[in-house]
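Re: [help] complex structure
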Amino acid sequence: MDEKNSSHVLDALSDRRELVNHNLTAHIKSINPKSLHQASNHLFLAGGKRLRPIVCLIAAEAICNMESSSFPYEGVLDLEGSPVNMLDAASSLELIHIFTLIHDDIMDDDDLRRGVPSVHKKFSTNDAILAGDVLHSKAFETLGNSAKPSSNLSSALASLAHVCSGICEGQALDVQFGNMDLVPIEEYLKMIELKTGVLFAVSSSLPAQILGQPKEVVDSLYSFGLLAGKAFQIYDDLLDLTTPSSILGKQRGSDIAEQKQTILTIHASNAGVDLAPFLKNGESIPNELNMDELVQILEDSGTISYAYELSQDLCTQAKRQLEILPHSPSRELLSDIVDFFCQRDH
Amino acid sequence: MDEKNSSHVLDALSDRRELVNHNLTAHIKSINPKSLHQASNHLFLAGGKRLRPIVCLIAAEAICNMESSSFPYEGVLDLEGSPVNMLDAASSLELIHIFTLIHDDIMDDDDLRRGVPSVHKKFSTNDAILAGDVLHSKAFETLGNSAKPSSNLSSALASLAHVCSGICEGQALDVQFGNMDLVPIEEYLKMIELKTGVLFAVSSSLPAQILGQPKEVVDSLYSFGLLAGKAFQIYDDLLDLTTPSSILGKQRGSDIAEQKQTILTIHASNAGVDLAPFLKNGESIPNELNMDELVQILEDSGTISYAYELSQDLCTQAKRQLEILPHSPSRELLSDIVDFFCQRDH
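Output below.
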């Protein structure tokens, strides 16, 4: 993607991020007592791309074929003429995302997230468990209040619930993979589908579902998000190795060094690459030179091109799903966002 | 309540418990992978009264004015003639209850629950966090699939979500009270309303909501559960001190010994009673004689009669809410259950 196009995507994200942040602030503010509010608010305040709610908003614009400047985010009319607060619906997705980050950080005992201490480090494990729990409930509450009670809203709530069960199952698989020598690639792809894909899928399809669009529109948008989410995750696995450490904010290649299962380690192992020299060994962490060498080895083994092509292929498949919508600037934007995230340098 | 009446209540609970357990087994069985299923299933297998789903089922029978023997639990017709699987709706309440028990046990670092090791002791804290999370999502999924999408179902889902946020807030207050010298009695009552009352409230009112009953019926049944739930909790506080240790399965008076805030400790402190001689001190745990002495002191201070009368008064108020329903054996049963739980010896 050239620079002009990427600045257009960044501007579009930034405009909508402001709307989402404003809406999320109000929902998180409603959490009491103060101690629970603070723990729940901590990661939200630390920033974040808000990609899931933004994708939801842009999908709503594309469905209605309306420009962002005139789009009634807080009162989008469904097919029966009832208003839907699409910002509330979008916020519910970020509340789920933050809940999963807080609990995942406890499970992985990660100290930092978004450049600040993780919730269980800043507060306590108990505070982090409860903060995750209340954000989890609050997501359903927020979505449940985004429109008048309706059959469409009940379908949307059931979809979100199904997806949340899937995210937990994906996390359980990820934990399980940590104890396995070799994970079959299709099982890894299933895990990222659950852990990352399904929340993007529901983010893209939620507006169609709440607005009462035909099933084929809901299904295509669900597939769009699922494929795009998997593409993002695979591209992220790749960036962990190829992005300069200074930009990544941590040693590049740390996924491999810490023996995390990623698309790269699985492909490389299948191709007979010995990753042992690049693993963290006590306090000795692989350096930049080691990583340059590893990149070369993984280029030779076809691992890097495999991961790159898989991500690009998923992107192409994702974008094809958008053809069910009328041509519009917002439909183009959804397509550009997928390209942007799967062609970025870091 | 005389013996005849209490055996009638026990039989009624037992019949419906079997239906609920059968339904819950299927929902929990759907959780994957195996490790997550096992951790999620552990407390369910350990037993439990299933009081919340049972109250839900009996409320449904009372609304429809049908005998249990002919009641179509898996296909109750709503006011528009659409079938509702009331067992699924009921199960969602127990899934929420089990999720809160699992996470509360981590927070309180309790070793035992229902006579077996708590989930985080039997498995690990990470397993217990994730098991609670998946049961939390599964509850919304189960309720969301209990009927065809409808405005009534979307209201029921939103109510459950609101209640779950409240339960988290109640738990946060309970944790906060652990660090306070003196908790005002109205704040304690608010805490138990959130931590215990609201889930009973939604358990009683959910059938009316899904079946599309008028708002005043939903509201009265909500109040019934809220008042009954508070009555149960206060009566439980009392039983902790007055039930023989052999029946309680732990030293009676342990709430007081461990300085938990309960209605008894708060009233006693307000009445100027010095509880210091009865607190756990290192390994030295108060014995039966100490507890007999404490009961005498709390009888003299009016604490025991205060808690007893408060629970009975809440019961009476709860039962009055049932008058909105037609006379029926199931309505009587709801009333008898409240009496049973607030007059039992242990």
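The mean pLDDT of chain B is 94.
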